[in-house]
Amino acid sequence: MTAPSTAERTADTVRPWTPPLSGGELATVLHRLRGWTAFDGVALLDDVATALDDVPPTEENTEELAERLRGHLMRLVTIAVAAEAEEDTDAAHLIEQARTLRVEDLPGDYWKAVAHLRRLGWTANELHDRLAAIRCLKEAA
Q: Which helix (H) or strand (E) holds 20?
């Protein structure tokens, strides 16, 4: 009788590989990756400048600018939460303000919409600066 080879011994002791996530969980991860947009500090600052400029955006551009600013706020809040920035009092206040503003509808009246855009822009700028100051972002754009 011969001793079993190393390959034969290993085949008996190694468990078959199973993926760490189920099919449904993998689909969720894939869906989130496909919907992911990288943080673009330059685009954020461009949109903040447009919102806070002395010359307000045209009425036709208010909804589009509001959507972009909401997206910037969403990414900044996600970065802040992941970096545990809520431990910083100023950051926590700005995160809460960003969450509140992000879900508000753009007012139908043009000048109220401009005021809302300015609140969105100001909050995005302040949160961006605070996250840079407490080193949640490598650098401000």
A: none
